[in-house]
Amino acid sequence: MATTDQEVNELIKREYEHGFVTEIEVDTFEPGLNEDVVTRLSEIKKEPEFMLEWRLKAYRRWLEMEEPEWAHVGYPKIDYNAISYYSAPKRKEDMPQSLDDVDPELLKTYEKLGIPLHERAKLAGVAVDAVFDSVSVATTFKEPLAKAGVIFCSISEAMRDHPELVKKYLGTVVPHTDNYFAGLNSAVFSDGTFVYVPKGVRCPMELSTYFRINAANTGQFERTLIIADEGSYVSYLEGCTAPMRDENQLHAAVVELVALDDAQIKYSTVQNWYPGDENGKGGIYNFVTKRAACIGKNSKVSWTQVETGSAVTWKYPSCILRGDNSVGEFYSVALTHNHQQADTGTKMIHLGKNTSSTIISKGISAGKSSNAYRGLVKFGPRAEGARNFTQCDSLLIGDRCGAHTFPYIESLNKSAIVEHEATTSKVSDEQMFLCRQRGIDPERAVSMIVNGFCKEVFKELPMEFAVEAGKLLEVSLEGSVG
Amino acid sequence: MKPAPTLLPTAFLHPAGQALPEPLLALRKQRGAALVDMPLPTRKTENWKYSSKHLKLTDEMAISLPIDGKAGSALAVPGYKVVFINGVMIPEASEYPDLNNILIQRFGDLSDAEASELAGQLDSTLDKNTVQLAGLNSARFEDGLVIRLKAGAVLDQPLFIIHEITAGASGSAFPRIFVDAGTNSQITLVEEYISSGQDAVMVNTVTEFNLAEGANVTSIRLCMDGENVQHVGATGVRQQRSSRFESHCVGFGGPLRRHDLQVSLEGEGAECKLNGVVVTQGTQHYDNHTNIEHVAAHCDSEETYRNIATDKSHAVFNGRIHIHQDAQKSNANMNNNNLLLSTGAEIDTKPELEIYADDVKCAHGATIGQLDEESLFYLVSRGIGRREANVLLTMAFINELVAQIPLEVVRDTVQVRLNHFFDQSFQGI
Fold first, then answer.
1. If you measure CA to CA, which chain A residue comes closest to B45?
2. Which of A107, A294, A426, B146 has the CA that lies 20 to 30 A from A211?
3. pLDDT at A45
């Protein structure tokens, strides 16, 4: 046991791999939030008039809202006036026209992250729309996408080039009145991704965005809007990292997905924001609203998330299953270590007939962390024949961590069926014994067992991400067995 | 701007009945002072999310129901019996033994020393933050029963406590029970809530069990109040080493039925088993909240609740298991199954786990569904009428729990009520 403890201590001390700061010139607003900041932000982004109005409306409403306190997390009160609401890498010319125009420092950042924009994008056939702090820096693979008719650009561009689409869908899934952080995001979001897949088009490649918070004292407020028109298919990947800093940084994003008739959206996230050090100092507050509206018949939305980072996570990717026969899926692995806190889960709102949903949630808590699943499954009175299956399993590693389950199940329809099950256990002594008996060291044994525990979710991830997720888990977990 | 919260009507803070020993009057006063300006629960109050709209407290209801000395329906019970009418005990209608090692006393008969011991124990089993309205009972009780079992004492027959409401006008009743089960003692307690009358009444009950080492308590709770009664009740249980608590709650719906059951496993090897059955029809509402605190290591809890909702009725279940940091080797199992038999009815369930220890086995499951078409077909194809087939399968769904009630007379009472329920609910089939 002694050796294990030692290994544990060493490994626990392993520092955050992505915790470097890129020193580039940054255009940053003075900290503070008022109508003037919102207006300036909108001006800088050369947004159409309707967007400014929309933002101001959201801001005024936000002022009246209260920060939610129901989540099973604790953090010091955030001073929203100490945050800078805009931070963009300073560009020598205007927007970079191609990768060559991108600041080499930036590209180095991505290389360190393991996503060299050129190579990886080409090799993996992934078009990466990397969001560095708040402005979309470079977008690759636009041409083949354009050929297929797919619009994949930053949301600021979309507002200029496709205002009719933005106007029609922005805020329809997550209205600015939805919750405190969504309200804040609506007022000050700086950039994000916009995807539109036209009728009957199967997006020829996996779309991908990498988010990274760089500057100190900034919040990252990106906004993603994905619209899958009738009969289309798109798979979208999102990865997140942030540098190591002592202060906490706020990330309040909003993601809206719209699936029309027979459309299918697959949204995968690997979130590895800086979780803070072993004493719980620093780290990202990840307060994200993600929601999908399956408004069309036979539409399908699938959320897959691997959450290993952030000091505090508050995130509930949800599906509103309005169209008849629509399908919602949620596959999640949430891992917390040291002093991390996660309150995450999903909402499946069944409104249409024969809608079905599946929830598979795997929570792993280690160290002194707290990991909660919070979910809602609701069947409306019209949801004839609706079906849900939920499984939430928790794995505890160490006796100072917590694992919690708060599932809300509400049914108003007599033909709807819901099944929910949850278990909590630890890595059993028998499993460990079996592995060690066969000469596998405890670190590897735990990693194997945990990987097995998460397999159901990992198999839902696209290949490249599944590999990355497995590695991430290994790094985050190593050293937690004792 | 948030609208100002609705406060507890001040009329509710004026207790009647001064025939209590001084320490209990003092306790009542102190608890009442804490309730001044208490906001009533709203939809935003997590514990009352689904039930707050059914809670209707009017000034008329604040008045204590008059004490009616006549025992109502004479219930033949195979054991000892204590009758409460409108929250006040009726000694003439009660029959219980006078034993050396088992003291059964009404609050009014306690000496000052006994009353001050009791005052120190009341409310000790309930978490005041989660059972807000139970506090009202402590501020208003006019009478109550304390049962003290000394070490090794065994009550040879079950004790039935009949709580009857005979309302000729609107009002409230606040019956109170405290059971102190000494080392290795045993008791079976049946609480039956019934009512007559048409006027809007609130019954606010608190029953507490304090189990010393090795004590064995079985509690059966039948909530069968009428359509005029809003019933808000709480049961608190504290268990020491190797004690065992078994609870069977059977509830029939009403305008508001709310029961909070809180069990705290504080000594190693303690175990509890909580069973519950709820049926609702019409526009009835029933809300069961249970909370099991695994404070000590090596404790077991097993919980099964089943609800049936028909017509436009609404059944709620909220079960929480909280495993404390030192409660290693805990074993906790919670199951909630629901039958939703008509569109328009609603079932809400929330089985929660909150776990801070790693070497534990915890599981919960919840389902909402309806009768299996294939089973129905199987029965119908063998010549059983559709209605009978429905009744049979519905009965089978809850009989697993009803059959576990250890007293035949209670099972029979429940069966009669269930038959009545089936008659009304499966009429159209």
1. A70
2. A294
3. 80
A422 close to B (CB below 8 A): yes
Beta strand ranges found along B119-196 (DSSP E): 145-149, 159-166, 171-173, 176-181, 186-196
Beta bridge partners of B374: none
Higher pLDDT, B237 or A154: B237
User: Measured between CB atoms, which of B340, B356, B357 is closest to A414?
Assistant: B340
Name the more confident of B396 and A281.
B396
Mark A38-50 as b/e (b = at least 16 C-beta within 10 Å). Answer: beebbeebebeee
pLDDT tens digits, A372-428: 999 999 999 999 999 999 999 998 888 888 899 999 999 999 999 999 999 888 888
Least CB–CB distance from A424: residue in B343, B355, B367:
B355
DSSP state of A191: B
Give the pLDDT score at A123: 33
Cα distances (angstroms) measured from residue B421 to each of B342, B398, B417? 15, 13, 6
As given in the structure block, the two tokens for residue A120 are 């990886």
A62's enclosing H/E stretch is: helix A49-64
Higher pLDDT, B108 or B73: B108
The structure tokens listed for B183 are 């080392």
Quote the minimal CA–CA distance from B83 to chain A in Å: 39
Over residues B150-195, the pLDDT tens digits come to 999 999 999 999 999 887 788 999 999 999 999 999 999 999 999 8
Per-residue pLDDT at B72? 55
Q: Over the stretch B22-68, which tens digit does the pLDDT of each residue have?
A: 999 999 999 988 888 888 888 888 889 899 888 888 888 888 888 76
Neighbouring residues of B52: CB distance < 8 A, sequence distance ≥ 6: B40, B41, B42, B43, B45
Judge if pTM exceeds 0.90. no
Question: Is the CB of B338 less than 8 angstroms away from the CB of A421?
Answer: no
Instruction: Indicate the pLDDT class of residue B76, thresholds 50, 70 and 90.
Output: low
Round to whole Å and give the CA distance between A69 and B74. Answer: 52
Chain A residues whose CB is inside 8 A of the B346 CB are 410-412
Q: Which residues of B touch A (CB under 8 A)?
A: 1, 46, 325, 328, 338, 340-370
Q: Which residues of B199-237 are buried (b: 16+ CB within 10 A; e: fewer)?
A: ebbbbbbbbbbbbbbbbbbbbbbbbbbbebbbbbbbbbb
Which of A70, A414, A422 comes nearest B353 by C-beta? A422
Taking residue A104's Cβ as centre, other Cβ atoms within 10 Å add up to 9
Task: Give the SS3 label for residue A172.
Answer: coil
Is residue A152 a contact partner of residue A195, using CB atoms and an 8 Å limit?
Answer: yes
Q: Does A68 touch chain B (CB under 8 A)?
A: no
Q: Say yes or no to pLDDT of A270 above 70.
A: yes
For A197-250, write each residue's pLDDT tens digit: 999 999 888 887 765 555 545 567 888 899 999 999 999 888 765 555 556 778
Q: Show the DSSP H helices in A86-125 as ranges.
A: 104-112, 117-124
* β-sheet bridge partners, residue A370: A341, A402
